[in-house]
Amino acid sequence: MSWVSGVRLRLRQLFRRAAAEERMAEEIRFHVEMETDKMVREGMTPGEARRRAMLAFGGVERHKEELRQGWRAPLLEDLWRDVRFAARSLRKSPGFTAAAMLTLGLGVGANTAVFGLVSATLFRALPFPQSDRLVTLYQNDEGSGQERHRIPWSYSEFTALRSSLSSLSHLAAYYAADANLSGAGDEPVRIGIEMVSASYLPALGVQPTLGRAFLPQEDSVPGAYPVVLVSHSLWERDFGADPQVLGRRILLNGVALSVMGIMPKGFRGLSGEGEVWIPHAMAPEVYFPGHLTTTEQFLNVVGRLRPGVSLEQARAEVASVGSSAAAAARQRTGAEEEGRFSMALLPLEEARRDPATVRAQLVLAGAVFFVLLIGAANLSGLLLARSVGRSREMAVRTALGAGRRHLLRQAVVESGIIGLLGGALGVLLAFWSIRVLSALAPERLGGARSRFARLDPFSTPSVDWRVIAFAGVLALATGVIAGLVPALRATRGDLT
After folding, report:
1. Distance CA 338, CA 335 (A)
2. Are 375 and 104 a contacting pair, CB within 8 Å?
3. Most buried residue, 82, 141, 187, 195, by CB count within 10 Å?
4. pTM of the prediction?
5. Is 184 helix (H, G, I), strand (E, B) or coil?
6. DSSP string of 103-151?
């Protein structure tokens, strides 16, 4: 039997305790009655026969305890009994319980809120299939100083990259901006748009839930294919979730476009602000009328690694084709120094994290940890004062036979319950704190924001399962540690 099956059996036996006790008592009665009937047939009186049967059987309670040891779960039962005792004890002292919860809850809440920020930036993956295969490409201009500047791509550079890189199954370009939308609702509205290449959605592994994505030819001839994709929220808000919306025309900056598809719920593009998507070939008509040239550098470039191609192999290919791009950049800018321009490839997960933001968050986490230490020290003081007031109770219980280990376990369980209660309060405080911190400084705390890739929504802090688990473990550990010293002191009293 595996340990999982053993635990399951123990739990089942624990919750069927009453039925098991009844069956055990019935079995003992059966054996005693059988022995009594046998002695009665041998000529004894019923009273004497029962007395002798009981003597022959031995102590009933001893036999019951021996049988219980075969199917009971001592640790679970003892722990449950300690939990019930601690709950009754804390209920009798509501003032102490509230003060302890508040003391610990403030420290846990502050640390949980900051962990929510750090978790969203460091641990939350991009919401795309196999997001670890997504990469971004950019050019570096190291200039004359030490600071390195990232340069976006022009459309001509993007097309050259697309034909040069074989390690990427999809290479896509996008640019985020705002535009005026009319024809969808009652009044014109200002919305976020993304101008994308036809390979943008295949690169991200996303397809419309209604309709179709852009076709390659729709991104080839400027202004020839006036088509658009709309977000699920815009479809519900301005089109009333009408399934017959496909083919309907809307006006984007005064340009008529036909709706070709509805994007999945929650999808807002890599900018996190997109509500409509147009092919890049329509950008000169919609957003840059008469101004956009193929050498204008404003595009972000992302791609997806081909199956079987490693990141190192893709970087090696980028380095091999980067020399020609660097030479073109030097010629374009008139730079003379060799090595000033370079091309780099980074995993999109890594590129979205601003090192300065991560450092600021870690420094903030270290600062609020001291708040938790202060709260733990205050909680330990409260528990110590409470243990002094309960010294007579502990002495009486020890005199009645309670061992020090048992008393110590009960004290630790009580401090652990205080920790969990403080953790629950801390999670509630974290809900409010995260919203306040995000509203006060979304760019510094909520994630990286730059003119190349605005990825705030993917690192927007929230209270998810990681944050709740962190708060629970932190609160329980702090409560137990804070209560350990008072528990040791309270259980070593001198009965004399």
Report:
1. 8
2. yes
3. 195
4. 0.66
5. coil
6. HHHHHHHHHHHHHHHHHHHHTPPPSSTTGGGEEEEEEEE--SSS--EEE
